[in-house]
Specification:
alpha/beta, Leucine-rich repeat, LRR (right-handed beta-alpha superhelix), 5 helices, 8 strands, about 15% helix, disordered N terminus, disordered C terminus, LRR_domain-containing, Leu-rich_rpt, leucine-rich repeat, LRC18 protein, LRR_dom_sf
Amino acid sequence: KGKAKGQKGTKITLKIAKNSIRISFDGGRRLDLSKMGITTFPNCILKLADVDELDLSRNMLKKIPSSIQKFQKLRWLDLHSNQLEELPEAIGTLQNLFYLNICNNKLTTKNLPEELNLLKNLRILNLGLNCLDSIPTSLGALNELKELGLFDNALTTIPNSVKKLPKLKKLNAKRNPFTDSTEQEEYADSIKRVDKLYLVEEKDLCSSCLKTCQYERDKLNKLKDITSSPSRKLSFPLLLTPNSSAKDNQEWRLK
């Protein structure tokens, strides 16, 4: 009986939603419905479509409806750690969006809408931990993009249109089956302005994750010390991604 209730998911009422609105650091209104056991998109929140930020992360959502287009003021959308298999084409209408996190879902390249390339103001896009076997060349239209997460997918290559985005400063493509073992380093070297992408701050990690990351960082630092070739540089030595063991107060924000 309890199991059936869990499958049904938490029912979000308009009252619950209103009580979940917070003021963000820059004064915007943020609707935080993360970690609430939601299985279906709560239509009642369409009455709160004037919020600036929407956090539906760490739930059990499988689908985002086309009605997401009603959130025209939205600047920040966090959908990470759900069970999304597709995104609606209507997401391309959110022209004010500068942050989109759809990491740790079940998205495939086929179900990644081409309309993502319409998000002309997007600064941060996280597509890590999905089931992508390729990246649409059309994402090369995101000329304002500064940070891109592609880690833990099934990519064999990254299109030049994406690698050469004019403002891209942080690219994380770790743990993809690139056809050439040198390609991953090549992709990293193509963006010489940065060599690390930290997606979660250390203070937001549980002690176990932090120890693991510190151990890996120490190993890489020792390797750097003994390497004889100064021209060879390890890119992205530390990768922190969202997972169930991260602390509840973890926030994915543009600092």
